[in-house]
Amino acid sequence: MFCIKCGKKILANDRYCQYCGEKIDGTEEPQNIKQTNLVQDEKSKKLKLSKNTWKPALIIIAVLGFFTWAYFANESDPNANQNLVNVGLYLCSEYHANKAESLFTNVDYTEDINRLEELWNEIENMYVDEYSEESINSYNAKVDQYSAQATLLEQRIIATEGSVEEHDSKIESYNNYLISNCDKR
């Protein structure tokens, strides 16, 4: 006796197929069983064919995924496609050079010092008429302006420099950034 659904041999007294669970009503002629087996063989061939087509498809997807990752990894790398810059003993991309520079900002007082020198030169070259109160007042105003700017500059220098430890900490951060993100020349 054979199952009409799956075509497998079953016992005569079985009420359900032990393979597919189909209810058994009676016997089936061998020709029907052969047709059922042929249909089932075709289905299994199709399944096998589809399993075999997954392997190349997965390989293609994996290769495309790798190249996509490699492309975008290169695009997000700050070193990619940038000019290299010398920073001390290191060769960095412009991105990393600017980033390192932002960690260690050295305050530049050049403009302030130049302005003080200009004022000093004006004071030295100023003609002062001893008998003219206006001339003396103008001279004294320039000297006061120079003194005020010199005092402000001195206060700025004291305020921005901070402690030696803070300065050393900035230098250490700057150097560590260069070491980890740039190549030594």
UniProtKB/TrEMBL annotation:
The chain crosses the membrane at residues 53-72. Keywords: Membrane, Transmembrane, Transmembrane helix. Residues 2-23 form the Zinc-ribbon domain. It comes from the Bacteria. This is Zinc-ribbon domain-containing protein. It comes from Candidatus Kerfeldbacteria bacterium CG08_land_8_20_14_0_20_40_16.
